[in-house]
Amino acid sequence: ATKKHHVLKKVPDCKNCQAIRFQFESLGFCCREGKINVKIPTVPDELIRLFTSQVHNDTKYFRKHIRYFNSHLSFTSLGVTLDQRVSIAAGTGVYTFRVHGALYHRLDNLVPGSQGPRHMQLYFYDTEDANALAHRVRRSPDLDINLVRVILRILA
Ligand SMILES: [Zn+2]
Fold first, then answer.
1. 31: domain range?
2. Please, which domain of life does this record's source organism belong to (predicted)?
3. Are residues 28 and 104 in the same domain?
4. Looking at the chain, which terminus has fewer C-beta neighbours within 10 angstroms, N or C?
């Protein structure tokens, strides 16, 4: 027996905001038919380069370790009760992230603890350029600090 895939039909882009639409989305789904002005920010060239360049080694490193960068640059940490039966079954199939109960975003105190600044504290604790980078290196010693510097410049 052959299985048929369901494929959505192409529909025209929104005539008001040019959003790419999917079949079955209502006309007002994106911008309420032009009532809401969707501000599309300019993406910095350096950010486009990080995500798309196939020739620079730093961009390949960035994409390979993107989850580490994401975690390093986050304001909060994740609080969950992980289902250990599936999450540590390494080598036995697809990694499975299954949570029991609620999922929290843990926000640290404003003042760093004995381990030094982390998460959002890194954004305002001792922000003198050289010191701020030193704190980040201490927090994530395996990350390419030059790339952290590039990303912080993009965020500034
Ligand atoms: Zn629209």
1. 1-40
2. Eukaryota
3. no
4. N
Q: How many domains does the chain have?
A: 2
- Distance from residue 21's CA to the centre of ligand 1 (Å): 9
Q: What is the pLDDT of residues 6-63, one digit of tens each?
A: 899 999 999 999 999 999 999 899 999 999 997 888 999 999 999 999 999 999 999 9
Q: What's the CA gap between 140 and 104, in Å, rounded?
A: 22
Residue 85: name the closest of 98, 103, 66, 94 by CA: 98
What pLDDT, on the 0 to 100 scale, is given for residue 63? 97
Mark whether 2 and 57 lie in a shared domain.
no
Q: Across the chain, how many H-helices and E-strands are there?
A: 7, 2
35 CA → ligand 1 middle, Å: 9
